[in-house]
């Protein structure tokens, strides 16, 4: 009897454990022809692409041990060159968790990655210490009922001001994004005296974890989850790519109609409560106290400052203006730790992906400038960026953010 109970206990414990990625590899492939790109795109529903295929740009693909040989055969047959970027993903995940301190009951910090609750409590706590220049606003709820909390930072609350909106954590596994956006919050408030002129004239609205359900899922169940956690009717595959769910050329290039794809666009634009909450907040706030100027999405990984468009190869009307400021921001970023960034439009230097928050922000006419910053690294660690890199990544990215915001005053 005791043995049976122990066994049942073990099974229960095992089923609650997160997914493992033993022997999973990330292959970096080099598509050098239109056919290569086309063939890789066709694999998008089967494999986990860490970047979207584009001609003469490396495409990173995660593959499990069972399909490893098959994928390599396929690549070889097509003449697509590849190399191993990450040899054993589980080892990386293990070291990531090992190198994080046990943060339970510890003060909030930037030496490890934190839960949504810890992050949102941090926003509430720090805002309480700076009530005169900040407030926490719940802009909606996720599919699973979690609050979506952002913080507004800026003096003269209640008056109409130039405003900067930042979305973090749209993609669940890009843990560096919530980590550095909370660092920005801390920097702006704890060192507020350094930013008096800026905060007098500009309001920052920072949403560190936009995809709260997905983020929690990466912590509890599967580190590599990207999408939301909404149920797709008629499919066993869960989730929508929130950065394909905004409304500019919905379903355009770089999106998928398959619920099993990592870039599934969803049933319709703003089907996800998380994207809808951002849109509704932006639109309604724009009618009152926010004079929206800059929209800034924070993702990983690529080390790029991207302007619209993501849905077309055409450049937007304000490209020159956005590009010039992007170049300045990249220079300021590089001056901190020497980290090199590329600057350009999404389709020009990354790859197409319609339905992004950046395209919507600019295309809807709500914002004058729109950027997606893809932070560290360029693939050595990819999404599993060691927590030791949180602070340096935050420090350098913050200079890019400041450069952009200072252009408004
Ligand atoms: N890695 C981001 C994504 O795939 C890039 C976003 C760039 N913007 C865009 N509209 N695709 O969503
Ligand atoms: Zn992303």
UniProtKB/TrEMBL annotation:
<dbReference type="GO" id="GO:0006508">
    <property type="term" value="P:proteolysis"/>
</dbReference>
<feature type="active site" description="Proton donor/acceptor">
    <location>
        <position position="374"/>
    </location>
</feature>
<protein>
    <recommendedName>
        <fullName>Peptidase M14 domain-containing protein</fullName>
    </recommendedName>
</protein>
<keyword id="KW-0645">Protease</keyword>
<feature type="domain" description="Peptidase M14">
    <location>
        <begin position="112"/>
        <end position="408"/>
    </location>
</feature>
<keyword id="KW-0121">Carboxypeptidase</keyword>
<dbReference type="GO" id="GO:0004181">
    <property type="term" value="F:metallocarboxypeptidase activity"/>
</dbReference>
<dbReference type="InterPro" id="IPR003146">
    <property type="entry name" value="M14A_act_pep"/>
</dbReference>
<keyword id="KW-0378">Hydrolase</keyword>
<dbReference type="InterPro" id="IPR000834">
    <property type="entry name" value="Peptidase_M14"/>
</dbReference>
<dbReference type="Pfam" id="PF00246">
    <property type="entry name" value="Peptidase_M14"/>
</dbReference>
<dbReference type="Pfam" id="PF02244">
    <property type="entry name" value="Propep_M14"/>
</dbReference>
<keyword id="KW-0482">Metalloprotease</keyword>
<keyword id="KW-0479">Metal-binding</keyword>
<dbReference type="GO" id="GO:0008270">
    <property type="term" value="F:zinc ion binding"/>
</dbReference>
<dbReference type="GO" id="GO:0005615">
    <property type="term" value="C:extracellular space"/>
</dbReference>
<dbReference type="InterPro" id="IPR057246">
    <property type="entry name" value="CARBOXYPEPT_ZN_1"/>
</dbReference>
<feature type="signal peptide">
    <location>
        <begin position="1"/>
        <end position="16"/>
    </location>
</feature>
<keyword id="KW-0862">Zinc</keyword>
<comment type="similarity">
    <text>Belongs to the peptidase M14 family.</text>
</comment>
<keyword id="KW-0732">Signal</keyword>
């Amino acid at each position: 009897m005791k043995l049976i109970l122990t066994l049942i206990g073990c099974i229960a414990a095992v089923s609650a454990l997160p997914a493992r990625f033993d022997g999973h590899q990330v292959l970096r492939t080099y598509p050098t022809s239109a056919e290569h790109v086309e063939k890789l795109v066709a694999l998008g529903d089967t494999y986990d692409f860490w970047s979207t295929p584009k001609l003469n740009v490396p495409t990173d693909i995660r593959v499990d041990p069972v399909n490893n040989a098959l994928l390599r055969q396929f690549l070889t047959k097509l003449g697509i060159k590849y190399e191993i970027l990450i040899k054993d993903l589980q080892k990386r995940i293990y070291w990531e968790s090992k190198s994080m301190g046990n943060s339970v009951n510890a003060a909030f910090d930037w030496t490890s990655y934190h839960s949504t609750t810890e992050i949102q409590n941090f926003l509430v706590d720090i805002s309480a210490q700076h009530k005169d220049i900040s407030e926490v606003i719940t802009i909606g709820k996720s599919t699973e009922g979690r609050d979506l909390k952002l913080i507004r930072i800026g003096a003269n609350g209640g008056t109409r001001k130039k405003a900067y909106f930042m979305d973090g954590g749209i993609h669940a596994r890009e843990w560096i994004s919530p980590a550095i956006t909370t660092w920005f919050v801390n920097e702006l408030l704890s060192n507020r005296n350094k930013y008096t002129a800026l905060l007098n004239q500009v309001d920052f609205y920072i949403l560190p974890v936009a995809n709260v359900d997905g983020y929690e899922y990466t912590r509890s169940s599967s580190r590599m989850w990207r999408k939301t956690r909404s149920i797709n009717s008629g499919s066993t595959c869960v989730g929508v790519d929130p950065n394909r769910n905004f409304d500019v050329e919905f379903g355009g290039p770089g999106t998928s109609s398959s619920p099993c794809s990592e870039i599934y666009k969803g049933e319709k634009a703003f089907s996800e409560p998380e994207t809808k909450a951002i849109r509704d907040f932006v639109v309604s706030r724009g009618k009152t106290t926010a004079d929206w100027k800059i929209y800034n999405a924070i993702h990983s990984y690529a080390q790029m400052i991207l302007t619209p468009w993501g849905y077309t190869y055409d450049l937007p009307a304000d490209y020159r203006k956005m590009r010039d400021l992007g170049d300045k921001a990249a220079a300021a970023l590089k001056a901190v730790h020497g980290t090199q960034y590329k600057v350009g439009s999404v389709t020009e230097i990354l790859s197409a992906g319609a339905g992004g928050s950046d395209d919507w922000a600019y295309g809807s006419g709500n914002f004058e400038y729109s950027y997606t910053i893809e932070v560290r690294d360029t693939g050595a660690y990819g999404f599993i960026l060691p927590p030791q890199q949180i602070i340096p990544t935050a420090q350098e990215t913050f200079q890019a953010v400041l450069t952009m915001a200072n252009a408004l005053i």
